[in-house]
Design goal:
There is one protein chain. With about 350 residues, the protein is an alpha+beta fold. It folds into 2 domains: about 110 residues, Rieske [2Fe-2S] iron-sulphur domain (Rieske Iron-sulfur Protein); about 220 residues, Naphthalene 1,2-dioxygenase Alpha Subunit, Chain A, domain 1. A hairpin with a 2-residue loop joins strand 12 and strand 13.
Length: about 350
Amino acid sequence: MFIENCWYVAGWDKEVPADGLFSRTIINRPLVFWRDRNGQVVALLDRCCHRAARLSMGRTEQGGDQIRCMYHGLLYDRSGQCIGAPAQTRIPPNAKVRAFPVVERHRWIWVWMGDPALADPALIPDTQWLDHPQWRSLDGYLHYDVNYLLIADNLLDFSHLPFLHPTTVGGSTDYAAVLPKVERNQRGVRLTKWVANTQPPEYSAKYANYPEGARVDRWMYYDFVVPGVLLMDSGMMPAGTGGQDSHREDALAFRGCQALTPETETSTHYFFGHAHNFLIDRPEVTREIHAGIVKAFNEDRAMITAQQHNLALDPGFTMTPLSVDTALSQFRWVVAQFLKKESVAPVP
């Protein structure tokens, strides 16, 4: 089961061309995307109402205001209503396909999968760092053959970092040993972590020009909201030069934006950008940071894919919870509440 009344990331803006069609399956529904004559993204169910053909195998017409199925020629407007069919003197009123609300913001295309009347753009998480002029990042995408909640579990679990990612984002053992403060809210969880006088992480220390043996104060604010969007504010500064109630203007900082979009019960789209605020005039630094993040995420993917395989072999297996699993449990509780609410009032 998936939450319907929420915004899902459907793709990067570059994935929907100015002239052409793009298809992506989200929560078991095939969708077709294209741009109309004004460049705005349109999304319809990628399934002709006649014989269930893929509309993404068709073509747009009238400057993108219409789409034609190339199986039997049915023509739809951007609302999904069939407005033409060869050899049909009368088009049935129910000859239509479902349209989905779409918002394009900060280089991500968001689609609302539930009741259109509830599609409030104010609920879209703030990912301004993906195209902010004072930050730099590269577009990231991975496909997982696992359920999205296993990936969410991984993203909310800091205890695995020094073991699975010792040469990438793992950090020092003293940093990893400090458990974050976990707070649950209406739409997800927030993790807060400050560690003073610790070793700088290898993946970013080389950009700081700190003297050998320098210690740092590190922070991480980590918001994880339904359906599976992560907003991370993290960084470091020389030890003793700042703190939780002080400035961070001179710090080396990152703003991570990640989104899990379920494709099916056993597959997931994973979008990410890891923006940084230093050396932004050197594209090779951005490429190097991105490559390190991709390496770490591939380490995660290999482990989680093996985990999914084990769980599939024994569906009755019960995981043994530990104290480090607090954030995982809290987020799954929030998801369960959303699903419960929608089961009481089904999405139209």
